[in-house]
Amino acid sequence: MAAKILVVEDEAAIQELIIYNLKQAGYETVCADNAEKAMALINDEIPDLILLDWMLPQMSGIEFARVLRRGERTRLIPIIMLTARTQEADKVTGLEIGADDYITKPFSPRELIARINAVLRRLIPEASDEAVEIGELRLDPVNRRVTAGNKEIELGPTEYRLLHFMMTHTERVYSRSQLLDRVWGDHVFVEERTVDVHIRRLRKALQWAGKDEWIQTVRGAGYRFSAATTLPANEPDTDLTR
Ligand code: CA
């Protein structure tokens, strides 16, 4: 699954250059030339990363980054700031408001792609093509295969994405709403109950390989993937409302 990158840049020539290079590198792209349009795109679907120009008309990139960091749905989106400013103080300001990296114009396409790859690898490993292995459970994004030892596990597309996300974010509890944002991308028309349905299917598929208990229900909080602990045998329910 190609990562989706939102480019917020008002200079048409630079925007075009960036989009061209991102597409060449295999990324899916959307773009906006001001914060308001960018926000509308984000409300439509959360991107995997935002390339945000510092100098924008109306709301500046820095102000917009602050708004994103305060929003419940948007605070975790990786942000790389783009700027013509080279001063150390500006760089510090950018990182202080929560930008994940910082690129100074002019930059080479190669540097741009390298920075994006580094941030994505660090912050959203499920967008990378690297195989994930936990115990004998192995998920390979290149051929989209999940295996446990020599058993192949058949998964639907949503269960596959859910498992990929969970295997790359182990030992942390995610609420249903967080899972919808991170796995479904856009939860505007999806009910939170949907998550329970897919968790149940995923467990059923993993049961065959004896790995279903790695998907744990944390009551009142959400779900967690953990290969480290074993749940008490009498807690098999997936219903958070009980
Ligand atoms: Ca600009």
Q: Could you explain how this protein is built, in words?
A:
With 242 residues, the chain is α/β, with parallel strands linked by helices. It contains eight helices and eleven strands. The protein has helices spanning 12-24, 35-44, 61-70, 88-96, 109-123, 157-167, 176-184, 193-207, and strands at residues 4-8, 28-32, 49-53, 79-83, 101-104, 132-134, 137-140, 145-148, 151-153, 215-218, 222-225. The strands form three sheets. It has a five-stranded parallel β-sheet with strand order 2-1-3-4-5, with helices on both faces. Strands 6-7-8-9 form a four-stranded antiparallel β-sheet, with helices on one face. Strand 7 (137-140) and strand 8 (145-148) form a beta hairpin. Helix 6 (157-167) crosses helix 7 and helix 6 (157-167) packs across helix 8 (193-207). The two termini are 35 Å apart. The chain binds calcium ion (CA). Calcium ion (CA) is lined by residues 10-11, 53, 55-56.
What's the layout of helices and strands?
Elements: E1 4-8, H1 12-24, E2 28-32, H2 35-44, E3 49-53, H3 61-70, E4 79-83, H4 88-96, E5 101-104, H5 109-123, E6 132-134, E7 137-140, E8 145-148, E9 151-153, H6 157-167, H7 176-184, H8 193-207, E10 215-218, E11 222-225
Parallel strand pairs: 1-2, 1-3, 3-4, 4-5
Antiparallel strand pairs: 6-7, 7-8, 8-9, 10-11
Descriptive terms for the model:
242 residues; alpha/beta; five-stranded parallel sheet; four-stranded antiparallel sheet; 11 strands; binds calcium ion
